[in-house]
Amino acid sequence: MRDPFRIEGPACISFSGGRTSGYMLWRILQAHGGTLPDDVVVVFANTGKEMPETLDFVQECSDRWSVPITWLEYRSKAQFEVVSYDTASRDGEPFAAVIKDRNFLPNPVARFCTAEMKIKTIMRYMRSAGMPEYQCAVGLRADEQRRVAKVRADPSGGSGGVDRVVPLADSGISVADISEFWMRNSFDLRLPNHNGKTAHGNCDLCFLKGGAQILSLIRESPSRATWWIKMEKSITNASVVNGGMFRSDRPGYAEMHRMATHHGELFDFDDALQDCACTD
């Protein structure tokens, strides 16, 4: 029986900086005897809005497992740049560049942030490296059935030459397996783990997170809202519906900052959206 973690090149391993994709990377390394083939590369696409602990974790995985990880960032006008842990953006610069190029904000219907900063940025890099057709291993588990089914139904994701594979799902790996691995491991992502979920993961105040979760994250560190408020104030394209807000079904980030730091929640939020290509 073929080992799902034996990735045939040309290929990329999409490492989001979370525990799930970190475990996937470990299993792929083990399947290859600890060293990846030259035409299998590990990529981390930085948005500039990840938590500092996420960036630390990516670098620690690289150092401890002796695996090169290519750090990528979106640049204006659909360009990209290879960066490093030391030079990576830490104040949302790639994300702001995407918003400036579009002159409206991503939202639950138009999630171009993930498409531009991660999917297309990785694709552009792979093509520049002479690999226009490649497999892309993404960290989706067996217990993420709906998301896995979408990938299997459309492996290219609309990107010509890309064949997405889900080795974790193919191996029946669940969130419990991921948690057990990191509890036994010599190091871990230094962000809270609540039943396998990392509320701080991906972009710090991502609009796909639930409102109650965002309020909690702002209460923990009010300055986290500053960048998101600035982006909502930066949009001048009034002709675009919802152009000046990340979401129209709840208060903007300035109001949520006020709610979190002054008078608390005014109503219950039940608005988390989990279907995003960023993964954990």
In brief:
This protein is an alpha/beta fold and 280 residues long. The protein contains 10 helices and 6 strands; from the N terminus they run βαβαββααβαβααααα.
Q: Which helices and strands appear, and what pairs or packs with what?
A:
Elements: E1 11-14, H1 19-31, E2 40-45, H2 52-65, E3 69-75, E4 79-83, H3 93-102, H4 112-128, E5 134-137, H5 145-153, E6 162-165, H6 167-170, H7 175-184, H8 211-220, H9 225-234, H10 253-263
Helix pairs in contact: 3-4, 8-10, 9-10
What does this structure look like?
It is built from ten helices and six strands. The chain has 280 residues and is of the alpha/beta class. It has a domain at 11-184: 3-Layer(aba) Sandwich (Rossmann fold), CATH 3.40.50.620. It has a six-stranded mixed sheet with strand order 4-3-2-1-5-6. The two termini are 28 Å apart. The relative contact order is 0.16.
Labels describing this entry:
280 residues; alpha/beta; Rossmann fold; six-stranded mixed sheet; 10 helices; 39% helix; globular
Parts with pLDDT < 50 across at least 5 consecutive residues: none
What is the β-strand count?
Answer: 6
Based on the coordinates given, report the CATH architecture of one domain: 3-Layer(aba) Sandwich
CA-based shape? globular
From the alpha carbons, calculate the radius of gyration and give it in angstroms.
19 Å
Largest sheet: 6 strands, mixed
Structural class: alpha/beta
The CATH superfamily of one domain is: HUPs
Order of strands across the biggest sheet? Answer: 4-3-2-1-5-6
- Count of helical stretches: 10
Distance between the termini: 28 Å
Strand content: 5-15%
